[in-house]
Amino acid sequence: MQLPKYNPKKRRVTLKKCQEPGCGCEFWGHPIAKYCEAHKDFKTRQKTKKLSDSLEVRNMFFKHCYSDMIEVKFRCCLDGCNSVFLVKILPKQFIYPRFCPIHRNDFKRVNYIRIQKRKTAE
């Protein structure tokens, strides 16, 4: 049996730019390399913070002094939706959903607004 000769692949080293914002230094690296030697370790890279919405965008504050759990009816805060939904009010909790269960999903809420605009345009 004849074995093929071992032929190591040539290493494709190219001149690349570091992808770290503000660095821009050039280095020799493999085509899939993104960062220079200084930024290879993730501890030396900039941390990106996630943008968070305020609580009041999706929720409402309902101040109460109930000591027992009770159910209260709320009206959906979305324009054009007049549905009523039940919310269990718990003691020492003040943040509750602003929208009915149908419109709590961001996509469904935006889709409902788009449909309402189309209906008013007709």
By DSSP (H or I, 4+ residues per run), the number of helices equals 1
Oligomeric organization of the protein chains: single chain
Q: Calculate the mean pLDDT score and round it.
A: 89
Radius of gyration: 28 Å
Helix-strand pattern: EEEEEEH
Largest sheet: 2 strands, antiparallel
| Spatial strand sequence of the major β-sheet | 1-2
- Fraction of helical residues: 10-25%
Instruction: Give the N-terminus to C-terminus distance in angstroms.
Output: 80 Å
Helix/strand/pairing category: alpha+beta
> What fraction of the residues are assigned to beta strands by DSSP?
15-25%
Could you please describe the fold and organization of this structure?
The longest helix is centred in the C-terminal third of the chain and has 16 residues, at 106-121. A hairpin with an 8-residue loop joins strand 1 (14-17) and strand 2. The chain has 1 helix and 6 strands, in the order E-E-E-E-E-E-H. It is of the alpha+beta class and 122 residues long. The relative contact order is 0.12. A two-stranded antiparallel sheet has the order 1-2. A two-stranded antiparallel ribbon has the order 3-6. The protein has one helix at residues 106-121; strands at residues 14-17, 26-29, 59-61, 70-75, 84-89, 95-97. The radius of gyration is 28 Å and the shape is elongated.
Task: Describe how the helices and strands are arranged.
Layout: E1 14-17, E2 26-29, E3 59-61, E4 70-75, E5 84-89, E6 95-97, H1 106-121
Antiparallel strand pairs: 1-2, 3-6, 4-5
